[in-house]
Amino acid sequence: MKTVLITGSARGIGAATAALFADSGYNVVINYNTSKAEASALCNMLKENGCGVITVRADVSKADEVDFLFSEVEKAFGGVDILVNNAGIAQQKLFTDITMQDYDKMFDCNVKSVFNCCQRALPHMIHNKYGRIINISSMWGVAGASCEVHYSASKAAVIGMTKALAREVAPSGITVNCIAPGVIDTPMNKGFDSETMDCLKDETPVGRIGSPEEVAKAVKFFAERDSGFITGQILGVDGGFI
User: Fold this and answer.
1) What predicted TM-score, i.e. pTM, was given to this entire model?
2) Mind listing the pLDDT tens digit for each residue in 135-153?
3) How far apart are CA 133 and CA 231, in angstroms?
């Protein structure tokens, strides 16, 4: 049985992804940093369905906490076969108002976390000559967003890391792909008022906001064994926005 680790999976896209993999018979590792109540509730729900699931608190922007996270997974399930780098933050701010603290926090949460988890996951995957890494970027990492320059830059960095790492680890039977979601109905977007959300919906060609479950299905596609000839790809799940 394969084991999937989803960072930042207490809610939103991460929680939907955890539920989908659990329903498909995978061992699931729910990672959270501050959302303990949500992570515990999700874990209990999945356990009721007979799934192999654990929760582990770790700030994945910190290498020592990532090491603890993977050690717990190894004790429970033997190692990570599928890594979904979902943890991240967003912030809307004029470029001239972005502080160095804002910039560092954004890149720590959105980029360093991916680096830390990939580096820790790869020895097990290389040993097994098999692995799947799926990184969650954003359509703004492709196109760029006004008043979200540091966010857009961090998500573009995830895309660059995906493409480069895919080339490096392909000979070991490991694929690395990326999802670039559009406007999705998640807690991250709850800060927008209804007028803004209506505008974003109108700008989306399919005429609606996406669901976390739709992104989760794209993640699962890249995680399947049959997707082994697909690597280094960026899949937009954005309703045609970009």
Assistant:
1) 0.96
2) 999 999 999 999 999 999 9
3) 9
- The model's pLDDT over 10-45, given as tens digits with 9 standing for 90+, comes to 999 999 999 999 999 999 999 999 999 999 999 999
Of 180, 182, 168, 154, which Cα lies nearest the Cα of 233? 180
Q: Provide the angle, in degrees to the nearest 10, between the axes of the packed helices 100-107 and 149-169.
A: 30
Question: Alpha-carbon distance 135 to 133, whole Å?
Answer: 7
CATH top-level class for 3-237? alpha beta
From 26, 32, 103, 151, the catalytic residue: 151
Q: Where are the domains of the chain?
A: 3-237
* DSSP bridge partners of 84: 6, 134
User: Which pLDDT tens digit goes with each residue over 177-220?
Assistant: 999 999 999 877 766 777 888 888 899 999 999 999 999 999 99
Cβ atoms of residues 118 and 112 within 8 Å: no
Q: Are strands 53-57 and 27-32 parallel, antiparallel or unpaired?
A: parallel
Q: Show the tokens assigned to 101.
A: 């603290």
Residue pLDDT, tens place only, 91-140: 999 999 999 999 999 999 999 999 999 999 999 999 999 999 999 999 99
Nearest to 175 by CA among 224, 124, 140: 224
Q: Which helix (H) or strand (E) holds 156?
A: helix 149-169
- 130 given a catalytic annotation: no
- The token duo for 60 is 């994945």
